[in-house]
């Protein structure tokens, strides 16, 4: 018997809204070099415009109500070994199709549960032409309205444990996962640790690997030596080089001194806005952000239960526990799927990727890091192909094919 | 991977002495100087107060200590003090009393005129050695405070200096450049022009933050055409050099393979590795997305406080910071003429101009060079990596960190006195200005 769920509605207290307004009214802006463009960071014109809107015009209550209407949300206490109980916020929507495939969606940073918004109606849609899913979108501890851990050392292992326990507590003994960014690392870990027993297949839009070495993948190494890079692969590697060369400062700081950074992000709305907005622009594929869309995204951080500083700690903890986690291939027996979007941050030649049991791949000619938000139709299309009739992962969850 | 090694020393770029001999002891007339007193407008102090009152602090993990960054208890205490108790006007007055300050317009090729703020104190000793002190980040002109009285002190027993400590453009009360591309060449040009404008055609420099090694390959001497602009010697407390390498530094590489490292050298490596693995996140962000970072530093007093305070603690050798001392240091950033965001651009500009600086470049300076070694400097390399033919002075210390002028003023000044004093390896390097009164030369 599944224990009952505790419904949750976002309801930010008035005092927090008033404080935000007061702070916005006192905003002090920096200057900017002539002709800086985006080369030095977020342009001043964007920040001024967004701050002015946030201060006057943007209506949090309206967007809060929309989120509450669109996303059925709940909270649940989950016990994590060594960390006690954490109250976890999540979205849960069941399809009308009784045997829909349970799917756990795991976001990353600077994302949140909001990233499930567009794919949710598509995933849960019933049709005879494609499978349907019961969707759970976990709010990572320290993000959105989930409680944050209070002890040191809460890293990928703990996030995975929590994700698995959440699904089990909802009666989904078997499920599949979809994740990008930290969601990739977390679901990869779940595939390794809970694969076959609980996690039955995993899909990511952020596949990783590394150039094959003679020692670990001799055949791939040899193939790589003789293969020339296609223009697409070159572009991908350039994007990757840009990311590690010019786009990685945030990660270096968050992985080493998250608390130091956290003070500014907690105290300054414009500081938080800039820190995240830079990624929303640089990491997407010319996605045309609406100002209110940006402000809602960032307000979730500003109004988050644990505050923005808590969200940074995953970088520190994961890096400390295993600096090679992203690159590492973890042994897994369950089927895996990749979706490739051209403006993803790390774009490696496919032969360098190291996902075991890769049964599904899909290429796209546009889209970036926030695939579920930018390209919901395409991402869901991929999941439908992967899990649908005739697809390589059809029927992985016993008795839940996704069809009536 | 970008790291601290990719930064270069401003003073090393300052044009070097040519063989032109300069005989007169000129009783050089100091040109007209425009005195400056720090006088922060009341509205700025009021705004700071309002912001501090609205401070929202994050939580902290149990037993985080300093492992995750600046500790919450420190920051909370400092914010409380800054809001109630810390008296900026008092410290402002003290700074104005202790540090004779001025401003002047300096023209920089391609950047127009910048109004530069500087400290200038002459010794009673007419032939004192002109010394240019160059601060770095997150420092300021304030760093000259403890060494100033010692350097300018006159005595037959040690040389004396005329001291100029300028605020780098974008720091303190200096104007910031408005155009892109203001990097080491420009900072050096500015330092040199300032000294020249003050009548110091030859001078020595001391710096401690901006890294090492720009080879004159990048800055050929023909940039420094103007006659009479000379840096005659330089001293640093943050020396750096490229590591042993089979091709670019083969002898050192052999040495590295054959001989081990002493415990002190190993401790230095650990310190350097700590910096590289845990301590240079700020560097990555500042050298790639300074504008993004700048918004938070400009808008949030506690954000700025934490960003800098973490360095004041981690980069010093158990220096017992007084809260008001910290707050004065940081208030200079908060109240700076150009705002805190301007100060981090130097990382971007230098990183862009010299992305591969240290890989293979070895020092090509020819002027006499001196190093002071402090154990808690953030990059600590074995001395044999640092040796060069023109390294004429070295001095070891058993305590002290990155902000040597602030933490160890006496030790640093003693080193300069030894380097430049009678019998020292750089004695008389500035023509006609030995640092002593004529009588004491006998």
From TrEMBL, chain A:
InterPro entries: AB_hydrolase_fold, Epox_hydrolase-like, Epoxide_hydro_N, Epoxide_hydrolase. Residues 6-116 form the Epoxide hydrolase N-terminal domain. GO terms for molecular function: epoxide hydrolase activity. Keywords: Aromatic hydrocarbons catabolism, Hydrolase. The active site is at 181 (nucleophile), 315 (proton donor), 369 (proton acceptor). GO terms for biological process: epoxide metabolic process. It comes from the Eukaryota. The keyword Nuclease does not apply. The keyword Hydrolase applies. Gene3D superfamilies: alpha/beta hydrolase. Belongs to the peptidase S33 family. This is Alpha/Beta hydrolase protein. It comes from Crucibulum laeve.
UniProtKB/TrEMBL annotation, chain B:
Keywords: Aromatic hydrocarbons catabolism, Hydrolase. Residues 34-144 form the Epoxide hydrolase N-terminal domain. InterPro entries: AB_hydrolase_fold, Epox_hydrolase-like, Epoxide_hydro_N, Epoxide_hydrolase. It comes from the Eukaryota. SUPFAM superfamilies: alpha/beta-Hydrolases (SSF53474). One of its GO terms (biological process) is epoxide metabolic process. Transmembrane segments: none annotated. GO terms for molecular function: epoxide hydrolase activity. Belongs to the peptidase S33 family. This is Alpha/Beta hydrolase protein. It comes from Crucibulum laeve.
